[in-house]
Amino acid sequence: MSHYCDTCGTELVEKDHEEGVFPYCSACQVYKYPHFSVAMSTILLNPEQDRLLLIKQGGKEGYILTAGYVSLGESVEETVVREVQEELGLSVTESRFLRSRYYEPSKTLMMNFVSVVASEDYVLKVDEVDQADWFSFCEAKKAIRSNSLAEQFLLSYLKEASKA
């Protein structure tokens, strides 16, 4: 599969660079580094940190984690607070980065957090979230969408939390 320069249309060639091999445009004489999106997902804990909130979106079955894309000029930490507020009307009181994973289908670097919210009283933004429910940790394992990135993040977190 050939790739072409987004500036001049010349076919790109692979060329060594001090950081690896990258596509290079011989006409523009510039490397064309890969582009990808950055997004966050968060495991939302209630104030007592004994239950977590999962959502359904896009008319799909199975629950997922609250997530969203990072806006230009915004930190990932700011995105966590903004997305939780926008989608659920909840205020994040604390948040901690857990892990990241590249998600090939959407060419997205997904950054996963665990966050505590001030209250269990959410208000759905109906054009973004179909449903939201609080679950015990055990119930959440069964409710989370199987074979999803959300499931991988949640199960990793619950495994670590059980050791603490």
Description:
The protein has 164 residues and is an alpha+beta fold. The protein folds into 2 domains: 1-34, Ubiquitin Ligase Nedd4, Chain: W; 37-163, Nucleoside Triphosphate Pyrophosphohydrolase. 21% of the residues lie in helices and 35% in strands. The protein contains 3 helices and 9 strands. Strands 4, 5, 6, 7, 8 and 9 form a 6-stranded mixed sheet that branches. A 3-stranded antiparallel sheet has the order 1-2-3, with no helix packed on it. Strand 7 (92-103) and strand 8 (108-117) form a beta hairpin. It is elongated, with a radius of gyration of 19 Å. The protein starts with 12 loop residues before the first strand and ends with a helix. Its cofactor is Mg(2+); Zn(2+). Residues 35-157 form the Nudix hydrolase domain.
Strand content: 35-45%
Helix count equals: 3
User: From the 3D coordinates, which CATH architecture of the largest domain would you assign?
Assistant: Alpha-Beta Complex
User: Under CATH, the topology of the largest domain is which?
Assistant: Nucleoside Triphosphate Pyrophosphohydrolase
Backbone structural class: alpha+beta
- Ends apart, CA distance between termini: 48 Å
Mean pLDDT: 93
CATH class of the largest domain, named: Alpha Beta
Shape: elongated
* Rg computed from alpha carbons, rounded to a whole number of angstroms: 19 Å
Largest sheet: 6 strands, mixed
Percent range of helical residues: 10-25%
Q: CATH homologous superfamily of the largest domain - what is it? A: Nucleoside Triphosphate Pyrophosphohydrolase
The count of β-strands is 9
- pLDDT < 50 runs, ≥5 residues: none
